[in-house]
């Protein structure tokens, strides 16, 4: 039996557990670590040449911490040294080992990005949720959100990111990209994800977010006319779907106060279902703090979104009182 260090004994007498510790314990329990390590292992160095590589799970834990707390490579390294909760999640004992340096994390992140591991994780968790019966079928909600990018040209290239563009929302202009998601109408879990530059209209990406077995699709007024799109009309699966799109507020006819406005009640019912799509956005943009892009280009940011929405699904699953997820073999 391994002796407990004095630091952990002293720390066990604290009066309360922080929200960060609670969150890390939830994620430590619900993430299928063996399955995720197996996805990375074929691309990871075998250690036959050069310096022996660090464990995949340890690097994966460090990368996830970087995503959840939106820190740089150097920032997450310093944070792990500084925080007991992060060190506990990393399973590091400073007597035997140290935190992987920022350069090692950078190379590991590039390995994940170049091999599309983020999308593999996202698809695996979505499949597992469906197999467990947590994700229902038959209905989807589509929506998109703007993610800001640096608009300044005060950099080495004296230019903005060529893959980011600007668009007008309301009376304000935004520069950056869009993240489009499809959410299960019954459970609220994200089942599909696409990205584009900010000037791409939401309706042009919607067909990629709909599942083949969906019978109803919800969306805000930005998706009006979706059922008349060419890609929808020519598809046998998509053309038979009931598209319940919210009307613009000004287009709903007004009625006297003494007479019930049935059309307004129908719009409220649509909105009550469609509101589920806002919860994953809340977790990613506010809880994980990813309201601004961290990298140039769409590819790296798309990989980051796959990781974040995958973890958002896991967090929502844990908050709903679900047990450990079985492996999606």
Task: Give the biggest sheet.
Answer: 6 strands, mixed
Helical residues, percent: 40-55%
Instruction: Write the H/E string, N to C.
Output: HHHHHHHHEEEEEHHEHHH
| Anisotropy-based shape | globular
Number of strands: 6
Tally of structural domains: 2
Q: Strand fraction band?
A: 5-15%
Number of helices: 13
> What integer value in Å does the Rg equal?
23 Å
Whole-number mean pLDDT:
88
End-to-end span in angstroms? Answer: 34 Å
Structural class of the helix and strand makeup?
alpha/beta
What does this molecule look like?
There is one protein chain. With 329 residues, the chain is α/β, with parallel strands linked by helices. The chain folds into two domains: 99 residues, no CATH class; 203 residues, no CATH class. It has 13 helices and six strands. Strands 1, 2, 3, 4, 5 and 6 form a six-stranded mixed sheet that branches. Strand 2 and strand 3 form a beta hairpin. The longest helix is centred in the C-terminal third of the chain and has 22 residues. The relative contact order is 0.14.
Task: Looking at this protein, list some descriptive labels.
329 residues; alpha/beta; 6-stranded mixed sheet; globular; disordered C terminus
Summarize the structure.
With 329 residues, the chain is of the alpha/beta class.
Describe the protein's topology:
Layout: H1 6-11, H2 19-30, H3 33-40, H4 56-69, H5 73-82, H6 84-90, H7 102-114, H8 117-131, E1 139-148, E2 165-169, E3 172-184, E4 190-197, E5 216-219, H9 230-233, H10 236-239, E6 242-245, H11 262-274, H12 278-287, H13 298-319
């Amino acid at each position: 039996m391994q002796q407990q260090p004095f630091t952990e004994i002293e720390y066990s007498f604290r009066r309360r557990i922080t929200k960060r510790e609670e969150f890390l314990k939830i994620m430590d329990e619900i993430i299928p670590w063996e399955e995720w390590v197996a996805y990375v292992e074929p691309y990871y160095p075998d250690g036959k040449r050069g310096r022996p590589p660090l464990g995949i799970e340890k690097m994966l834990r460090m990368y996830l911490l970087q995503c959840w707390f939106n820190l740089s490579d150097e920032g997450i390294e310093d944070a792990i040294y500084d925080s007991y909760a992060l060190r506990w999640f990393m399973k590091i004992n400073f007597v035997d080992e140290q935190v992987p340096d920022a350069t090692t994390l950078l190379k590991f992140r590039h390995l994940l990005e170049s091999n599309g591991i983020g999308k593999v994780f996202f698809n695996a968790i979505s499949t597992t949720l469906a197999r467990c019966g947590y994700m229902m079928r038959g209905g989807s909600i589509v929506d998109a959100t703007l993610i800001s990018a640096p608009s300044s040209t005060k950099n080495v290239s004296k230019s903005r990111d060529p893959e980011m563009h600007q668009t007008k929302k309301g009376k304000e202009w935004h520069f950056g990209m869009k993240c489009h998601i499809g959410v299960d109408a019954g459970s609220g879990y994200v089942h599909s994800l696409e990205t584009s530059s900010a000037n791409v209209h939401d309706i042009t990406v919607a067909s990629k977010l709909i599942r083949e077995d969906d019978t109803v699709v919800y969306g805000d007024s930005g998706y009006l006319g979706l059922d008349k799109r060419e890609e929808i009309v020519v598809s046998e699966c998509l053309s038979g779907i009931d598209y319940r799109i919210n009307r613009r507020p000004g287009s709903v006819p007004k009625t006297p106060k003494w007479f019930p406005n049935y059309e307004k009640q129908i719009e409220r019912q649509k909105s009550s279902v469609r509101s589920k799509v806002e919860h994953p956005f809340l977790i990613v943009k506010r809880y994980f703090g990813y309201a601004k892009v961290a990298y140039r280009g769409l590819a790296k940011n798309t990989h980051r979104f796959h990781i974040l929405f995958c973890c958002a699904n896991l967090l929502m699953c844990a908050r709903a009182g679900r047990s450990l997820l079985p492996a999606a073999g």
